Give the backbone structure.
Amino acid sequence: MFGLFKAKKQVIQSPTDGQLVELESVPDEVFSTKLAGDGLAIIPMSNTFVAPVSGTLTKIFSTNHAFSIQTNSGLEVLVHIGLDTVNLNGEGFKRLATEGDRVSVGDPIISADIEFIESKGKDIITPIVFNYEKELTLSNFNERTVREGESIVEVTFK
């Protein structure tokens, strides 16, 4: 009975090679003010975006610019590739997985042509936000350069 309220921990892996930055530094108020959820961001240095957690691929947006994965413990992780990239209508993005798939950390989800996206005047900063109906906290995060699959933050939630 006491275990019902025990905090859960989820280690999040980097979905791509890049530079980690604070979510507050994202030049989009929806993300920087955490309206979309708490999290962090990465400035990608690679064109492949992989699953940062294992779970069910619950959503790939029709324009392939964002995806979300629900973990078995109930945490939802959204990876939003670039800012205002929905306006590219899918151009520069290629889907590598299917909505509803069970995915493991490191499974390729989206390929994005970062140079093309930048050439269209879009910021490539990629928010990674966590949605959970109750409070959550982030730990073991610091701004640094990371490789795909490297641990980037630990999320604790009840």
